[in-house]
Write a structure and sequence with these properties.
The protein is an all-alpha fold and 393 residues long. It has 14 helices and no strands.
Length: 393
Amino acid sequence: MEKLTAQEKIRLLANRSVLTLYISGFLVLMNLMVSLTLFPLYIQFRGGGDFMIGLQSSIFAAASVLLRLYFGPLADSAGRRFPLVLGAFVFATSPLLVWASPNFFFMILARIYQAIGMGTFLSAASSSIADLVPDKVRGTALGLYRASISAAIMIGPFFGYRLIDHYGYAGLFTALSVTSFSAMLLLLTLKLPPVSLQCKDKTVKLKDLLGLFRISNLMWCYIGIFITSITSGIVLTYTAVYLEFFSGVISAPLFFSLFAAAGIISAPFSGFVSDRIGRKAVLIPLILFFGAGLIFMGSEAILYSWFSWCIPLIAGIGYAGSLSVFITWVVDSAPPHLRASALAFEESSIDIGNAVGVFTFGLLAAVSTYSALFAGLGIFTILFSFVVKFLKK
């Protein structure tokens, strides 16, 4: 295959279908990030406590993992368009169902319904982007899509808080519905290439799914994503609590803004570099960056210095970049006719890793300090970079 010029790469990445997926993906992901961060506040507003918040979040995560076992292969056997549109529709209607729930039982049912969106949209969107672009710009294209997640983390909750302040939860849930409904209308205009439908009318069987775990690169990518997600789940959950112990240092909102901003830049840039020099060559330094950021978090002396502003940038570059490259490598390694199924397992690896990390850190926090745990987490992450050596180029 001939080398693509810069102009050709830009044209491929900026074609109408790819841009449609980027825009609709951002709208849906913003809905998701707002629900993950602000739905707990609504539960408290309705009279629920920590137990109900934890219960709903756990049920939502478990339902997402289980539903992907069906909807991931569906995107391979029936084409990408149906799960994309269905996912956007679910994200458009689930906030209204949560808002209208007369009690917590019905709210839990609404969250299970929302999990259908998690099971359908995310892996179908990534696989569609991979279908639409040549291999030589795949890392860049998927990196740009992953950057939209960082953008959604940075923008969504900010505007969500403003909507609650000015218009109450009615304004919040209405806005979430409108944004995802707009994404659905955009997706109805999406044109997908024949490769996205190459397995139409062919059912993906259980042996096909099990066969994915016999592909060495895929297995090590899943392990890498799982371990990265253990660490990221801890950072996203416990950093705000940890920083409360230090007065006059970087605030939690600023930390997460810088962390997300670094991800917006790192994901596409890391993908671009990996397209040029290979995935493995990029992964190891990114993982080391992530680990170094966590070790710095564990140092109280550094937290009280000006360098504390650099910590979320270093960790954000490492986290977003490494996860983006790992996901691109999943696409590289999976058979094209099982691409969405492979990405569904990738998304489940993230969810399970987050849950394991948060639970384990909570247990260890009872017998150790946050500083020691964050430093240990950084060392663990750096040691984990050796996993990459098992991956083939």
